[in-house]
Structures are given as C-alpha cells and as structure tokens.
Amino acid sequence: MCWSICFLISFQISAQQLVPAQLAGKWGFVDDEKVWIIKPKFESVRNFSEGFAAASKKGKWGFINSAGKWSIKPKYEQVGDFSESLAAVKINGEWGYLNPVGEIVVNPAFTKVFPFKNEEAQVVLPGMLPRQRIVINTIGKQISPPYIFRKEVESDVYFIASQKKSKDSVFCYIDNEGEFLTDWFLTSFQWGVAGQKVAVFADNSNDQLPVDVLTNDSEKFLYGFVDDKGKVISDWFEEVMPFKDGFAPAKKNHRYGFIHDNYETTVK
Q1: How many other C-beta atoms can be found within 10 angstroms of the C-beta atom of residue 87?
Q2: What is the per-residue pLDDT across 25-40, written as a single tens digit (0 to 9) for each?
Q3: What are the backbone angles phi and psi of residue 8, rounded to the nearest 5°?
Q4: Fewer CB atoms near the end CB (10 Å): N or C, the chain?
Q5: Residue 65 half-sphere exposure, CB side, CA atoms within 13 Å?
Q6: Is 228 in contact with 198 (CB distance < 8 Å)?
C-alpha cells in the first residue's frame, strides 16, 4: 500500500515538472533541461494537474498522462483542469464534471463552472441573473440558493446575498447542506446578534401582511426584529423609530404606539 501511494505521489510530482513547449505548430512537454519528454503532437495542451494534462486533437479535448498517452480520449468541446479528482468538461454547450477514469459524475447542465475546492464548486445555471451562481457538491447536489455573495460566518453557517430581477437585494442564512436557517429579508443582518431590525414586502392588497420577498415586488414594506438566529420575535410594523429609554414609537394598522425593547407591543 505504501509503495503504491509513494509511486503515485512521485508520478504526479514528475508530471507537474513537465512544461508545455511548441515545435512546428504542435505542442508537447519538456523537462527543466528542455529535453522532450512528450513529443509535440497535440494541437494545444495545458499544464499538468493531479497527474493529468488537458490536450486537444482534431478540435476535441481530453487528458493525457505523463507518458503522453490518452487517459481520457479527446471528445469534449472544452475541459478544465483536475481539482480534487474532478475536472469540468463541456458537452453540447453545457458543462459537467468527470473523474480520473473518464466517468461523468456531475451531468452537464451549467453555462459556467469553477474548479472544486473543499468538495464544492461554484456553477452557473441557464437563465440565472448576471453575477448569480449556486454551489454544488461532488455528486452535483445543489447546496446553496442562487447568490451573488456567500460567506461562511461560523462552522457550517453561511451568509447569502442574492438579487431579484427587480434588482432588489435579498439576504438569508443557510447551512452547509443548503437548508435555510432563516427566511429571506430585504435587509442584511448579522448572525449571532439579537434585536436587529429586518424588512420584508407588505401585501399590496392587505398592507399589514408580510409576503415572500422573492416572489413579490410590492411597493410597501414592513419591519420587524429577529433573534440571534434570524427568527422573527416581534410583530410586523409599517414604521419603527429608534429606541429611547427602552421604548420605540412604531406604526401598526396605520396607528402609532410603542414597543418595548423586548420587542413586545406595549401601547397600541
């Protein structure tokens, strides 16, 4: 077992030391002394990654090993480099991923892809808004909603900022499997901090009811407060002014009253 692992490491290191070189319009690889190790016989090549180099022949791309032999035959429109034992390949205009033996493990369905890192990859689906993308795992499962910004804020908790066709920004938190930890809100809020004010759309036909910010473009807003995990802990208000001496003026049902700093309505 140790011998095979050591051999594989040695094999990959020697492959990474090979450098693309061109002769008479064809590409191959030389070592650090400029000696041809893989004869120039390819239309184009890229650097080795994880023991494989992308190479093209007759307008199609595949992967070669450090001996210059095809490990994955050239039949793809475009390919990416191997990262975490997966490489992107383009088939019929869409991108997917294959493994080192040439098996498609993530079916082609994306217009743009990025290399895998920490067992996840960013990809773009057809019809998504500019700058939007999602995250998939190594079997192609979607583990994030469409987003324009994603950041891990603590172990397995991610802050997500996205955008609607109306250009409204929306915000939420998810876990590492893509499950929602909070609703979507129109205001950014910090995980782990209680008492933050958030906003949602109000129903145009009944302006006291909140509606889904992803599917609605109401011109009316409602405001509430969330706990440290993003759960709403107050009523919804048409307007909330700053707190002073433990109370804040707030408007509900078109009338003003006060809310206590424990977020309960105290005077209606």
Answers
A1: 26
A2: 999 999 999 999 999 9
A3: -65, -45
A4: N
A5: 11
A6: no
DSSP states along 4-47: HHHHHHHHHHHHHT-EEEEETTEEEEE-TT--EEEEEEESEEEE
- Distance from CA of residue 249 to its chain's centroid? 41
Instruction: Give the amino acid at 223.
Output: Y
- Taking CA atoms, 107 is separated from 11, 104, 134, 147, 254, in Å, by 29, 6, 15, 21, 53
The SS3 assignment for 3 reads helix
Phi and psi at 183, nearest 5°, equal -75, 170
Q: How many residues are recorded in the chain?
A: 268
The Cβ-side half-sphere exposure at 193, using a 13 Å CA radius, reads: 8
pTM comes to 0.86
SS3 of 2, please?
Answer: helix
Nearest to 97 by CA among 65, 120, 71, 66: 120
What the block records as the tokens of 11 is 């094999």
Give all strands of the β-sheet with 52-57 in edge-to-edge order: 44-49, 52-57, 60-64, 70-76
DSSP strand pairing (94-98 vs 104-110): antiparallel
Structure tokens at 215: 């599917």
CA distance 160 to 167: 15
Strand partners, 141: none
Question: Which tokens sit at 146?
Answer: 């469409």
CB atoms within 10 A of CB 74: 19
Neighbours of 179 (CB within 10 A): 8
